[in-house]
Amino acid sequence: MKARHKRLAIIVTAVSGLTIAGLLIANAFRSNLVYFFSPTEVLEGKAPIDRLFRIGGMVETGSVKRDGLKVSFIVTDNNKTIPVNYQGILPDLFREGQGVVAQGRLNAEGKFTATEVLAKHDENYMPPEAAAAMKGGSFEPGAKKKP
Question: 72 near 65, Cβ under 8 Å?
Answer without folding.
Answer: yes
